[in-house]
Amino acid sequence: xxxxxxxxxxxxxxxxxxxxxxxxxxxxxxxxxxxxxxxxxxxxxxxxxxxxxxxxxxxxxxxxxxxxxxxxxxxxxxxxxxxxxxxxxxxxxxxxxxxxxxxxxxxxxxxxxxxxxxxxxxxxxxxxxxxx
Length: 132
Hints:
This protein is an all-beta fold. It has strands at 5-8, 12-14, 31-38, 45-49, 51-52, 58-69, 73-79, 82-88, 94-102, 109-117, 122-130. Helix content is 0%, strand content 57%. The strands form two sheets. It has a six-stranded mixed beta sheet, with no helix packed on it. A five-stranded antiparallel beta sheet has the order 2-9-6-3-4, with no helix packed on it.
């Protein structure tokens, strides 16, 4: 049984209008990308990452399948398919694209993050590997 850690996570959201064309630095709907940083105005991910080291700070940008009020947003983190962290925001933004700074991960393994509505299904997800 995995331990459940509940933390408050403060981030920023924004509705990035792209019409029918997707901006190249922003993930497609339903997807979370990880990177070294992101532009807080456009949410463009810089230096996309598929793995992180034990002391690396990094970010995640998720583009939801529909806009969501920040106070209804939940972020779930899984390590090797076991839910180990749940976080939320106190943001009052209503957005389809959300970005968050993440600290170093505590344990190596395969990590999956989901952005979901409270009590609902995931609206975006993404994975990375944490190296020892």
